[in-house]
Known about the structure:
By secondary structure, the protein is of the alpha+beta class.
Amino acid sequence: MVTTATAPATEAARPGKQYAIADFIDTTSIFGASFSADEKRILFSSNKTGVWNAYTMPTGGGDWSAVTSSATDNNYAVSYFPADERKLVTRDQGGNELDHLYVIELDGSEKDLTPGDKLKADFLGFNHAGSAFYVATNERDAKFFDLYRYDASTYARKRVYENAQGLDLGPVSGDGRYLALTKTRTTNDNDLHLVELASGKSVHLTPHEGDASFSAEDFSPDGKYLYYTSNQGSEFSRIRRYDLAAATHEDVRSESWDIIDVAFSHNGKFRVDMTNVDGRTRVDVFENATGAELALPTLPAGEIRNLRIARSETRMAFYLNGDRQPNDLYMLEFGKSAPERLTTSLSSRLDPDDLVDSSVVRFKARDGLIIPNILWKPHQATAQSKAPALLLVHGGPGGQTTRAYNVLAQFLANHGYVVLGINNRGSSGYGKAYFAADDGKHGREPLWDCVDGKSFLQTLDYVDAQRIGIMGGSYGGYMTVAALAFQPEEFKVGVDIFGVTNWLRTLESIPPYWESFREALYQEIGNPATQRDFLVETSPLFHADKITKPLMVLQGANDPRVIKAESDDIVAAVRKNGVPVEYVVFDDEGHGFSKKENQIEGYGKMLVFLDTYLKGDAAASAPR
Length: 624
């Protein structure tokens, strides 16, 4: 295989300091931004106590006030009410993803706005006047989400759309007249529909031939247009809009990358676009009346994320995120040249100079396809002191490894591991053809990309060619175990984080509220009713007797997507081979490990496993 790359040049080793996993997890994670009615406070979510809770703080900075104080279940901030200090939050139970929506009243008491067993609720926003809000729940039918309108004062509600056809609900227009919906055919092909809620009249907005993806983003506040993104007739998604009165479509803006989000400020003074540019998110803000682009402030290294403009349209909140910069909240008054930094999230125990910058690298796969990746190179890795390496596979299948603060990659790099976050074929962000290139090929071509990624790592003079492992979560966990089963001599170890091992069982046990996506999932992975032999062939559990390399498995007991049996069975099967297996189960987690205590335990044990079976120096005195 011929490899090409833009890997960073070999550099001299930096002494640096190795940190315990507890030092990394001491960093505070924070996201979300909702302004209070008087715009003097901002509502957000943080895991500062070890469990996610909702907080507020002054928009000028200062002490945090806890809105929720759970020590068990994660609570996430949703929104302030537009006219007073009430707040909306959401939480599930132990990671089971059955989210309910709660209001925190002015006196601090809590009310479940979506009571019931086994239902899931999603908040879809306030109307423009702030007098009502919209919530989707699957209480009527576990498979489908209906739309409910809640009175913002009394919480009286009315079902305004019964989703009998199983479409995915999109944005509601500010005047409450229209609802946008998506009908999914495959992961690469869907259609937009528009329904007038009062009459029930529906319009198919995007009849087309061939595969094309459409995403309804936002209604313009003046009620004239539905803005959406589309890759019809092109490799990348561009912005289009539908004129609600004239029933016509027109292009608004295109880029040479996917535009992934479009949103308006409250009265439409500004439009905010987000573009996926080679593993980074670029934010552009436009003045709607003139089309002029707003000059955003110059900031330290990183990218702006989660930008929110206040209802007055005089200020905005945003996060800065970078390789060595976890999310920090900033506030900018329009007309001022510099924003105010409101938080410092990186742990004071960590010296940011001891962390590493990522880089974009590419290699040529065996069939000539160019594979993009994100590389984290340890300071101590040199041609004279070669380092072990790990191939990190993202979830999805259609996910993407991006350039951002990644606590696991930084922790491993700090302990001397080269980490290559591969965006194998089928990853999002690199065009329509690349995204579709893995359909029906799982366990084969995407896995071969991983093997070719290992070969690329072996060309780097600071990598120990004989000590390369593979790891990943969810679909990345599947790829990890598939690599050990189908390419058993390629990787020295594998770390499977809640990965699929038996596609038959996973596809037959998906949550009922995934029903609108079921056929697309079958098209992507395989249909258990008609492709049983193929799914057995591509499921590593049925080939576990071929696994000879050490395996670590981490699993949340309440995971509704990849159920615990997937991990139980592969662990039992590989242990029968006499192969070392480390198994870690968290009883209070789902599809992802959100609690700091569990992250410390899981990542700490991961390092011990890798030091033992990949690096070979578990007895070293470095902190864990």
